[in-house]
């Protein structure tokens, strides 16, 4: 008995091989499985007595907590997160309404003869703030407050006598105080 010559993927040829009767090529030899593996492969997937029809996928109904398959603690945490988010949105809305009142009162006191259309444009822009822009403004405000706090600490240290000869950078930092305060006021009113 012979195995015919075959062509390899690279184009070369394998020689014809002579084999004994009952020879099985390596690719066709079954993988060895011990008794333990054979037992579990032959074992049915379902528990004894359970019919396959009973295991048909049932559409899960949502429990009262919302998400399916969550533990009590996870459901409780979801409720807490939702409540916190709602309170945060409520707080942002209140802060926005307060700043709108300040802006509208400030505009009417400063420019009594301004046309109505120019007043409506800033309030319309403030009614629907972009979340990314709001977080960016909050970051800038936080950063400016930090810088002002550093300037105040530096000034207190100089007044207390801890720093007798302030460096050039320290004097520049003290000189920027008014500009930082103005920028912070503009940002806070712009919220």
Concise summary:
With 191 residues, the chain is mainly alpha-helical.
Verbal overview:
- Belongs to the pym family.
- One of its GO terms (biological process) is exon-exon junction complex disassembly.
- One of its GO terms (cellular component) is cytoplasm.
- Residues 108-125 have a biased composition (Low complexity).
- The protein has helices at 35-42, 72-110, 116-127, 131-160, 168-175, 177-190, and strands at 2-3, 17-18.
- By secondary structure, the protein is mainly alpha-helical.
- The protein has a two-stranded antiparallel ribbon.
- α2 runs antiparallel to α3 and α4 (131-160) packs antiparallel against α6.
- It is elongated.
Secondary structure elements and pairings:
Layout (H helix, E strand, L loop, with lengths): L1 E2 L13 E2 L16 H8 L29 H39 L5 H12 L3 H30 L7 H8 L1 H14 L1
Antiparallel strand pairs: 1-2
Helix pairs in contact: 2-3, 4-6
Subunit structure: Interacts (via N-terminus) with magoh and rbm8a; the interaction is direct. Associates (eIF2A-like region) with the 40S ribosomal subunit and the 48S preinitiation complex.
InterPro entries: PYM1, WIBG_mago-bd, WIBG_N_sf
Pfam families: Mago-bind
